Q: What sequence folds into this?
């Protein structure tokens, strides 16, 4: 396999992993309410999905580091197929709840293995000095493209279903399940992985917790990784502040909830497009800034300015307020993607293959922890002091996160592949 071939396979898997998510994003809540669920029940289904994802984040990362990337990605695709297929035919709360559990398992399994496969493969072909930024940037861009196209196609699919064929809102998860079947085939056929030593189930049960514990100690104790985990938590605060407060703001500006929903769908698609551009520009930003850490600072500052502009324009009404909010939303995702991609590169450079996926799962867990904190604190702040105050706090958090990259050590833990005990 060549480096170009590995990159193309990584890009395809990245696209197909997130396409089902994008396809179901716009219709998910409407499908559940259309099948008779109350908003409280919808919230419980989403909460269970989140809890399952968070609870399995580290164990599944450890599993990928022990048994290999491909088998975990294949399992993720299979769980996605099952979850979305069940979601498309669900008619009761309990069916949707089981669907949420299956999707949560799939999300946890998919967190990190594809990027780890690409990094391991590139290191095997070009050594540990290989530049990871261009490939990771293209993979990140494909994820955002998949979300952008998915949310637009998924939003329009119910309108194209012939009368009497099926419940229109069930079309997006049905198509998403088909996309996940394609992902499963691609993973099984296009992601060759060096053979691993055969392990008994008992051995796997011992090694996974040990890998998780070692990776958490590494992330908490290493200077570079500790800063990167804090940066991920800061991103979680900012992203949640935007996703929590923007829909209501757009509904207020558009005049009705229905128009606000349409406005948010368009703005979300534009945000994903901005994220794709940010991922693609990350290597150039690092080159112009003089290094990955400085490029991450530039992205964090841009994100802070974008959220700050949301706070500053919160008093605008009508078309001017709508346009300013949409523009800030797009620029925010561009900046946060630049920082996120460069943080991902620095994370992979700081670890060996033995704990690569688990450490990236730790980063994902940090992001979700930041999001949970923002949900609890910024939502209450918005109610008490207004949306501008909540966005102002998020802007301060984003700007403060830039300090984490100041005088960042040039390299993390330089480990040669042989130390991992696994072929790469």
A:
């Amino acid at each position: 396999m060549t480096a170009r071939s590995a990159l193309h396979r990584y890009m395809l898997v990245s696209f197909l992993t997130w396409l089902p998510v994008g396809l179901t994003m716009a219709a998910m809540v409407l499908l559940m309410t259309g099948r008779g669920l109350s908003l409280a029940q919808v919230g419980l289904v989403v909460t269970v999905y989140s809890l399952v994802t968070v609870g399995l984040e580290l164990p599944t990362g450890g599993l990928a580091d022990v048994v290999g990337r491909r088998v975990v990605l294949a399992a993720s695709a299979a769980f996605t197929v099952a979850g979305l297929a069940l979601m498309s035919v669900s008619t009761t709360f309990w069916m949707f709840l089981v669907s949420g559990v299956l999707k949560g398992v799939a999300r946890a399994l998919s967190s990190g293995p594809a990027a780890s496969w690409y990094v391991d493969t590139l290191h095997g072909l070009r050594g540990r000095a290989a530049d990871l930024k261009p490939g990771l940037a293209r993979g990140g861009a494909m994820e955002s493209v998949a979300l952008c196209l998915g949310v637009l196609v998924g939003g329009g699919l119910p309108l194209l279903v012939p009368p009497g064929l099926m419940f229109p809102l069930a079309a997006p998860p049905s198509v998403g399940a088909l996309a996940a079947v394609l992902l499963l085939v691609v993973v099984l056929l296009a992601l060759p992985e060096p053979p691993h030593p055969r392990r008994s189930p008992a051995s796997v049960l011992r090694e996974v917790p040990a890998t998780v514990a070692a990776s958490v100690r590494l992330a908490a104790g290493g200077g570079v990784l500790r800063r990167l985990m804090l940066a991920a938590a800061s991103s979680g605060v900012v992203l949640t502040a935007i996703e929590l407060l923007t829909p209501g703001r757009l509904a207020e500006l558009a005049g009705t909830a229905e128009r606000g929903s349409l406005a948010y769908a368009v703005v979300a698609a534009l945000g994903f497009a901005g994220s794709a551009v940010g991922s693609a520009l990350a290597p150039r930003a690092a080159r112009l800034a003089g290094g990955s850490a400085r490029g991450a600072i530039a992205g964090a500052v841009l994100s802070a300015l974008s959220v700050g502009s949301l706070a500053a324009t919160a008093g605008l009404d009508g078309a001017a307020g709508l346009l300013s909010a949409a523009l800030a939303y797009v620029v925010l995702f561009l900046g946060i993607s630049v920082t996120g991609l460069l943080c991902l590169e620095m994370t992979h450079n700081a670890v060996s293959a033995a704990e690569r996926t688990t450490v990236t799962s730790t980063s994902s867990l940090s992001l979700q922890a930041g999001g949970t904190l923002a949900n609890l604190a910024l939502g209450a702040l918005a109610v008490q002091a207004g949306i501008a105050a909540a966005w102002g706090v998020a802007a301060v958090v984003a700007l403060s996160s830039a300090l984490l990259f100041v005088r960042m050590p040039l390299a993390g833990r330089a480990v040669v592949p042989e130390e991992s005990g696994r072929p790469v």
Q: What stands out?
A: Residues 257-289 form the longest helix (33 residues). The chain has two domains: 1-190, 212-409.
